[in-house]
Amino acid sequence: MNKGGVFLLSGPSGSGKDTLLSALFAAHPELLFSISSITRPMREGEREGEKYHFITRERFENMIEQDELLEYNIFVDNYYGTPRKPVEEALQSGKDMIIEVDVNGAAQIRRKLPDAVSVFVMPPSLAELKRRLSSRGTETDELIQKRLQCALDEIARAVEYDYIVVNNEIATAAEQLYAIILSNHLKTDKQMELMNEVLSTC
Ligand code: 5GP
């Protein structure tokens, strides 16, 4: 059996990660997604337990104390974190799990799981990023400015990633992302069982 892997997906707010992930999961429902726990208020259109668990600061700080998070970070005044247990379960079951995480969270996970494959989703241009951030209509100008500054800081750290996918055309970007997942299955260290089987029949 091919062993699954952990795939870290980062990219600035407005890079279109959510749409890209929707396209990927629609085409490959066998992939697992890590649902983050966060303290930011729910936006219109979001639902509890779909992409995020919306929890209180108190509960989040309790999760930190109990070591229930694989990583966490503060982004624009709110906590965002990856619950540890579902990731460990995915690794044990041999399934592929996608973890959407910011650049600091990705660095924390890389230290703990050095085999994790990391992918940075790049917006096609800065102008397009600005347009996407303002067109959301759910946030104040001040928040949009903060998100834009964070976006520039994150883009400067794309070099830390194994792969960069430019999110210009969703279908193409989703195909490229899946190609990365597939190629991970073909790595020699994921195919030792097959090697042993072939050699044992000699
Ligand atoms: P948003 O508020 O736009 O949903 O997300 C803000 C940022 O938090 C995005 O860059 C997103 O990738 C990141 N993020 C989402 N989930 C997690 C998480 O579990 N941990 C960390 N460190 N960042 C996350």
Distance between the termini: 21 Å
Q: What percent of the residues sit in helical stretches (DSSP H or I)?
A: 40-55%
Cofactors, ions and other ligands in the entry: guanosine-5'-monophosphate
Radius of gyration: 18 Å
Strand order of the largest sheet: 2-7-1-8-9
Q: What this model shows, in words?
A:
The protein is built from eight helices and nine strands. The chain has a five-stranded parallel sheet, with helices on both faces. The chain has a four-stranded mixed sheet with strand order 4-3-6-5. Helix content is 45%, strand content 20%. The longest helix is centred in the last third of the chain and has 16 residues, at 170-185. α1 crosses α7 and α5 packs antiparallel against α6. The protein is of the alpha/beta class and 202 residues long. The protein has helices spanning 17-27, 57-65, 84-93, 103-112, 126-135, 141-155, 170-185, 192-200; strands spanning 6-10, 32-33, 36-38, 52-54, 69-75, 78-83, 97-100, 117-122, 163-166. The model has no long low-confidence stretch (mean pLDDT 92). Bound molecules: guanosine-5'-monophosphate. Guanosine-5'-monophosphate binds next to β5 and β6.
